[in-house]
Amino acid sequence: QVQLVESGGGLVQPGGSLRLSCAASGRIVSTRSMAWWRQSPGNQRELVATITADHNTNYLDSVKGRFTISRDNNKIMVYLQMDSLRPEDTAVYYCKMNLYARDSGTYRDYWGQGTPVNVST
Fold first, then answer.
1. What angle do CA 79, 95, 38 make, to 5 degrees?
2. How far apart are CA 9 and CA 29, in angstroms?
3. Amino acid 104: pLDDT
4. Of 4, 9, 35, which is closest to residue 112 (Cα–Cα)?
5. pLDDT tens digits for 6-20?
6. Chain-wide mean pLDDT for the chain?
7. Is residue 93 within 8 Å of residue 115, measured between CB atoms?
């Protein structure tokens, strides 16, 4: 059974930095795209950043120049470096990976449980 576990969230002051990590475990054969999403209270979940298997990236306009997504294909991990954090970045952050798991026999999306980020004084 595939599991994704995020870490690295917490409380940070405006202008500060955090680095989120997401590790996948299980009988994983291959990976495709990986992404970070976030959801704040009362709002829909929104896509923050994506990275393809060959490391092409895309970002939500409001985080461009401040956030950096990266991945380690050998470890099956995805990271989100968040700099110059703002109060409006406060949300629960979720990682998502498109994986081929031996048990499923096909590529499908898997989600982590979420890690909270609170940007506040």
1. 105
2. 28
3. 86
4. 4
5. 999 999 999 999 999
6. 96
7. yes
Through-space distance between the first and last CA atoms of the chain, rounded to whole angstroms: 40
Rounded to whole angstroms, the Cα distance separating 108 from 18 reads 29
Task: Record the tokens describing residue 5, joined without a space.
Answer: 């576990």
Q: 99, 96, 53: which is closest to 72 by C-alpha?
A: 53
Q: Is 12 within 8 Å of 19 (Cβ atoms)?
A: no
Tens of pLDDT, residue by residue over 38-90, are 999 999 999 999 999 999 999 999 999 999 999 999 999 999 999 999 999 99
Q: Cα–Cα distance between 46 and 11 in angstroms, integer?
A: 20
Report the C-alpha gap between 23 and 25 in whole angstroms: 7
